[in-house]
Structures are given as structure tokens and as C-alpha cells.
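Wait, mind explaining this?

_____
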Amino acid sequence: MTASVDEAELQRIARQRRFDPRTLEIARRLFIKGDRPKLLAAEYGLILQRIYAIRKAVLDLALPAGEAEVTLRGPVQAVEAAQRAFERYMERVQG
């Protein structure tokens, strides 16, 4: 499966990586608007390799299409029960 980066996924990645506003703007233009790396490098006064590095950083953190991520916080027993349920589900669907 390939990673798909929409606005929600980009926001999740930005929180995880703590992108500065300019980097996030470049990433949004790359993934959401579809602007070309050469255009962005010229507009932002960056070398092309920096634009590709931003793209790589986002793609390295993007979840594959059809997958999601969750963080649980609560009583230890409740979190452990949820983990066990998830593991049982994964065993069932993976064969």
C-alpha cells in the first residue's frame, strides 16, 4: 500500500514532527495543491534538495492508505484490554 497525504494526514504528521509554519506550507503545496518541487524551490529561495527532503520527511511519516493510528490514555487495565483485543483482531485477519 502506498501512503496518501491529505490535509488530515498532513496535520497529523505536522504535530508529530512539529514542522515550522513555512515547512508545513511547502508540504501542503506539494501534497495538497500538487505544486512542482522546482516551482517551490524558486518561490521560497531554497535548493531543490531541500524541497525533496521535506517531501521525504512527510512520506516517511505517512500512514499507508487504509490505515489509521490511535493513542490510548486511561486506566492501565483498559488500555491493556484494548491492546489484547487489537492483537486478537490482527491475528484473525492476517491468517
In short: DSSP finds five helices and no strands in the chain. Residues 7-94 form a domain with the Arc Repressor Mutant, subunit A fold (CATH 1.10.10). The radius of gyration is 18 Å. The chain has one domain: 7-94.
